Amino acid sequence: MRTLKLTLEYDGTDFVGWQVQPNGRTVQEVLEGALARLLGGESVRVTGAGRTDAGVHALGQVATFRTARELPLQAFEKGLNAILPDDVAVVSAEEVAEGFDARRSASGKRYVYRISNRPGRSPLRRRTHWELFRPLDVEAMQAAADRLLGEHDFSAFRAADCPAKTTVRILRRLDVRAGAAGEIVITAEATAFLKHMVRNLVGTLVEVGLGKREAGTMPALLASGDRRLAGRTAPAKGLVMEEVFYEPR
After folding, report:
1. How far apart are CA 125 and CA 137, in angstroms?
2. In the prediction, which pLDDT does 249 show?
3. Is the pLDDT of residue 248 over 90?
4. 124 Cβ partners below 8 Å, 6+ apart?
5. In this predicted structure, what is the pLDDT of residue 247?
6. Which of 5, 108, 146, 185 is 20 to 30 Å from 171 at the Cα level?
7. Per residue in 38-53, is it b (16+ CB within 10 Å) or e — as a string?
8. What DSSP element (H or E) covers 143?
9. How far apart, in whole angstroms, are the C-alpha atoms of residue 148 and residue 219?
10. How far is 20 from 163, CA to CA, in rounded Å?
11. Residues 200-208, mean pLDDT to the nearest whole number
12. Which helix (H) or strand (E) holds 221?
């Protein structure tokens, strides 16, 4: 048996998430179906590095699976891409050591969230950005972000149905940068993330940017552990899983 690692890119707009579920189209289901065709009917179960939610995109999602077939790696790139729908693609394929697991072997992840912050709507950004028409104070947002870095209990930023056994995470990076044409890019990197954690962080930073809360209140918010005191959950469409790390950082 071989263990194969795939790096995937996908547009999450028309998916109900990564994980197979009965209520709609999922990335995992589409990928497993394509693999079954490529492998001549062999059924494989794919493990993803992260269970992206409905509408969340990926530039560097990682998936692993085991197979007895001796197909060349090129078949798992070009062959799968010929079968997969237009909104999912294999970026790379490699054979890895037995025991490597896309989720359990990961040492960290990086997500990027994009906001379109200009006076009018953007047809080209409507599927990939949160459109906010009131100007945001990027410097204030960064000041708040700096106070969230480090090892903390992030209970105040997790979804109510988050299944994680521990809510302590190490947030290594949280950058807020203004780009061209009113784009604001928020980059978050951590050992791991709680369910909806990035989107809840973004929703809270946006409130700071709108002047609805002070940057200096972040430590008290963390200490409260109360999700009700944090900002709204930012829309899924602005979020991209950019990279999964497998080496200490």
Report:
1. 21
2. 55
3. no
4. none
5. 82
6. 5
7. bbeeeebebebbbebb
8. helix 138-146
9. 7
10. 17
11. 98
12. helix 218-224
Position 143 confidence tier, pLDDT thresholds 50, 70, 90: very high
| Residue 174, Cβ density class (10 Å: 0-12 exposed, 13-18 middle, ≥19 buried) | buried
Question: Angle at the Cα of 84 (from 3 to 115), degrees rounded to 5?
Answer: 100
Residue 18 has pLDDT above 90, yes or no: yes
**Long-range contacts formed by 115-121: CB under 8 A, 24+ apart:** 115/183, 115/184, 115/185, 115/186, 115/202, 115/206, 115/238, 116/182, 116/183, 117/182, 117/183, 117/184, 118/181, 118/182
Averaged pLDDT, 108-129:
97
Enumerate the active-site residues: 53
DSSP letter at 46? -
> Where are the alpha helices (H) located in 58-107, listed in sequence order?
73-74, 80-83
Q: What is the number of H-type helices and E-type strands within the chain?
A: 6, 10
Structure tokens at 40: 């001549």
Tokens coding 167: 């809510």
